[in-house]
Specification:
Distance between the termini: 44 Å
CATH architecture of the largest domain: 3-Layer(aba) Sandwich
CATH superfamily of the largest domain: ABC-type transport auxiliary lipoprotein component
CATH topology of the largest domain: Rossmann fold
CATH class of the largest domain: Alpha Beta
Largest sheet: 8 strands, mixed
Number of helices: 8
Number of domains: 3
Shape: globular
């Protein structure tokens, strides 16, 4: 009996432990461009930290699902419940224009899915930009239109309605001027970072949604259908299953018959970036073949009642709902980064107004960002904003900002106006 009690006690102790630390060594490399060793060293350092976090309790989520051969959801994102508390360079060498670092990393593994960084209490700021259409010829004159700006706008409306986000519509701006190579560009931090940093500075957002419309094309064979002027039911009308087009041009105007496609594709790729670091957090691809009324006889704008009242619009609505759910899951564990607006003898002023749901009397923790420290981490880890940290009391909350008072701390921590910090 004593042994049994001892065993149960050990199990409870292990379960109650919030985290344990492990020291591991990881290598990171980077190409030295234009002789800039400092930037290459930082990139190699960040790469080593990424490798370290992936070694300990991290997993890559990759999903490829089909339903009856018509629905596809292709999703890739990286998550980790580890937290880097210290990282030291123990070896460095340069060979052939490539710098390689050996880094000793102390990793704390947290029991929760979000570790110590569950920030669901605050409304995160997110923007969505223009979605270019890969083949513009797939949208005709008498057709559905407005996909490029309609998709990001509608996505933001649904995210806002979920209650967890403050949205900024940036559908007049684009991250992908070369939509054919959007996937590789979205993964290239050096190219994406300056663009998302601009949105960070101009709109004050923390995350950016972009994407590419890859396919809106019609599927063959076409179906013989009644036109809108004569149609009684919104259904296909092709009783003989014929696929040839009659030569009588007056068949449409006199009998109300028209040859239209009865299948149409939807294929969209979404990218979610951290606006501060430029890190690609996730890539989601949705593809579907829609059957039914898929091409109107007059211009119908994306997002209108007439659009969502058709099978094609209903399929788009389902995809947008799936993406909203995926984004909510992805960002539930992400950092809440804010800008320091100013300081005086008594208070520090941060870019968190009452619409973010911060409240007077709250106690929050501030994580100072260190450009030379472990800034670039994988999803879910608080090491993106490294130590030191300090607690603060929320004294005043205004429409566009809050005044906080730092608690006593062992070592001095200085926050500069204009810098970005993380709040938990």
């Amino acid at each position: 009996m004593r042994h049994f009690i001892f065993l149960i006690t050990c199990i409870l102790c292990l379960c109650s432990a919030a985290a344990f630390a492990v020291t591991i060594e990881a290598r990171g490399s980077a190409v030295i461009a234009n002789g800039d060793i400092g930037s290459a060293r930082l990139a190699a350092y960040q790469n080593a930290l990424r490798q370290a976090s992936m070694m300990r309790n991290a997993k890559v989520n990759s999903t490829y699902a089909t339903q009856l051969g018509s629905n596809i959801v292709d999703s890739i994102q990286v998550r980790s419940s580890s937290h880097i508390s210290r990282a030291d360079i123990i070896d460095e060498h340069i060979t052939g224009g490539i710098i390689t670092l050996l880094v000793s990393v102390v990793v704390e593994e947290n029991a929760g899915s979000c570790g110590n960084f569950d920030n669901n209490s605050f409304r995160k700021k997110i923007a969505a930009v223009y979605f270019p259409l890969l083949d513009a010829a797939q949208v005709g004159t008498n057709d559905y239109y407005g996909f490029q700006r309609g998709i990001p706008t509608e996505l933001l409306q649904r995210l806002s309605a979920s209650g967890g986000f403050l949205v900024r519509d940036a559908s007049d701006q684009s991250l992908h001027h070369d939509p054919l190579n959007a996937t590789s560009i979205a993964s290239n931090g050096n190219k994406i970072r300056p663009i998302v940093n601009t949105l960070l500075d101009n709109l004050g957002v923390q995350y950016v949604i972009s994407g590419v419309i890859r396919d809106l094309g019609h599927e063959l064979p076409p179906g013989l259908r009644l036109t809108r002027n004569f149609e009684l039911f919104n259904t296909e009308w092709n009783p003989l299953g014929v696929s040839f087009k009659p030569s009588w041009r007056g068949i449409e105007s006199e009998l109300g018959l028209k040859w239209q496609p009865n299948e149409r594709n939807i294929e969209i790729e979404f990218f979610i970036h951290d606006a501060y670091t430029g890190e690609l957090l996730a890539r989601h691809r949705h593809a579907k073949i829609v059957k039914g009324y898929v091409k109107p006889d007059q211009p119908v704008r994306f997002g209108t009642y007439a659009f969502y009242n058709e099978p094609y619009g209903q399929a788009f609505s389902e995809i947008l709902n799936q993406e909203v759910a995926a984004i909510k899951r992805l960002l539930s564990c992400r950092e809440f980064s804010v800008k320091v607006l100013g300081e005086d003898e008594n208070y520090l002023y941060i870019d968190m107004g009452r619409d973010t749901l911060i409240k007077k009397g709250d106690t929050i923790t501030l994580y100072k960002s260190e450009r030379q420290g472990p800034v670039f981490g994988v999803d879910g880890g608080s090491y993106q904003f490294s130590e030191p940290s300090v607690s603060a009391n929320v004294i005043h909350v205004y429409a566009g900002y809050s005044a906080i008072q730092l608690k006593k701390k062992r070592s001095p921590i200085y926050f500069q106006p204009g810098e970005y910090i993380s709040v938990n």
